[in-house]
Amino acid sequence: MAIKSISDFYNFSLFIFDLDNTIYKEEDYLFQAYEAIAEKFAGILPSCSKKALYATLKDLYLQQGRDKLFDKFLNAICLDKSYLPDCLKILRSFKPGKPLKIDKKVKKILNSLKNQGKSIFILTNGNVDQQKNKIKHINWDGLDKKIGFVFANEIEPKPSPAGVLHILKITGIERNRTIFIGDSEADKKCAQNSGISYLDISLLSELSS
Q1: Sorting pLDDT into bands at 50, 70 and 90, what band is 15?
Q2: Of the residues 1, 13, 142, 143, which has the fewest C-beta atoms closer than 10 A?
Q3: Beta partners for 178?
Q4: Rounded Cα distance, 105 and 117, in Å
Q5: Is the separation of the CB atoms in 192 and 178 below 8 Å?
Q6: Checking DSSP bridges between strand 119-124 and strand 100-101, what pairing results, if any?
């Protein structure tokens, strides 16, 4: 179905959203996690301040991305890879000091979908414990009670259609009544592989303006 207006969007019955950078900005979680990691290693390395360690980790992320980020960080501060589990544990289980906020336009749309009685799901890739921790600390204002959460890594990560097919099975809603809203190529391909419509979150924001 061609989506040319917000009314076209609302014609669907089942709405599947990605989580990171779709519902909220993932860096709001990551940067707080990096601060917690910096605090941990400031205790291990008295000569290094939390501020300096955080700057090192954040700069590595901004310049080189997340691939082997903690390996690079440990190398930069002259620690071996035996400390890698500490980094991962904090990343996946820390408690953010600031609650994660849903994008304002997305929140408005989610509330509208809820009020219309639509079926809403979130299908997310990534470490399950980490994704659950994010969800736990998002300020949902009760919206989470109306959303089904499916962790693709428990089934098969996107772009596999397995997660979408699981949702279609439990809802009984047809593919032509289903739309996936995401931000990545994996999300787009997942929708294509599943035979359902797809809309990039940036385009949805424009429709709702």
Answers
A1: very high
A2: 142
A3: 14
A4: 19
A5: no
A6: unpaired
**3-class SS string, the chain:** CCCCCHHHHHCCCEEEECCECCCECCHHHHHHHHHHHHHHHHHHCCCCCHHHHHHHHHHHHHHHCCCCHHHHHHHHCCCCHHHHHHHHHHHHHCCCCCCEEECHHHHHHHHHHHHCCCEEEEEECCCHHHHHHHHHCEECCCHHHHEEEEEHHHCCCCCCCHHHHHHHHHHCCCHHHEEEEECCHHHHHHHHHHCCEEEEHHHHHHHCC
Structure tokens at 115: 């009020």
Q: How far apart are CA 64 and CA 49, in angstroms?
A: 22
- In angstroms, how far is the first alpha carbon of the chain from the final one? 21
Structure tokens at 131: 């994704």
What would the pLDDT profile of 88-144 be if each residue is shown by its tens digit?
999 999 999 999 999 999 999 999 999 999 999 999 999 999 999 999 999 999 999
Q: Which of 33, 147, 42, 139 has its CA nearest to residue 91?
A: 33
- Between vectors from CA 96 to CA 110 and to CA 140, what angle results, nearest 5°? 15
Domain ranges of the chain: 6-24+102-207, 27-93
Task: Record the pTM.
Answer: 0.95
For the chain, the maximum distance between any two Cα atoms, rounded to a whole number of angstroms, is 60
